[in-house]
């Protein structure tokens, strides 16, 4: 039984799933609290876990660069009140090199796996055949690359410029979707996909995250048969599958 936790910029979702990915309770979602020092994230996960069935292990996905369970950089949790608000230097210091895996394992008494949230999402949808790219559309843009089911080193594509000084994160993130509307925003998603296609030459691209369902039908037709939209629930299913896919 796996406690799967999906930490986003706006909300933290969790559930307990068996090894087949079947949920054993109703999923729980709470707003992401801000400001969010590491200790508060650990407390929040512990509080959520207390209201769910007992688990044998924990998987947590969070935004940013995470290596071996240790935070290198996280974009939202260093801010005063959430995405695109003021960055607080004391939170940058607190999160830098923070071992989330060790902290959660000690607090909950469970073996823990901590990854980038798009990587966990990908674990829930990939077929483990060929080169598979996962892009998550939500507060910003997340990404994960797999080859034969093996996870490649994480790249923060969201921080790269897509044009002039505009990053992918800003170009197709939630604030721009709200400003443009689904139609114009969907055209941007198509532009991003077509721009990345000659970089990756994937066998399959999965579009997930909370906003994937907002891509218009006309935009989906332009994306091609090698692009699949997947449900956001994959982020929790991936928490169970990640142990088999990503842990040697």
TrEMBL record:
It holds the Pfam family ROK. SUPFAM superfamilies: Actin-like ATPase domain. Belongs to the ROK (NagC/XylR) family. This is Polyphosphate glucokinase. It comes from Isoptericola halotolerans. The lineage of its organism: Bacteria, Bacillati, Actinomycetota, Actinomycetes, Micrococcales.
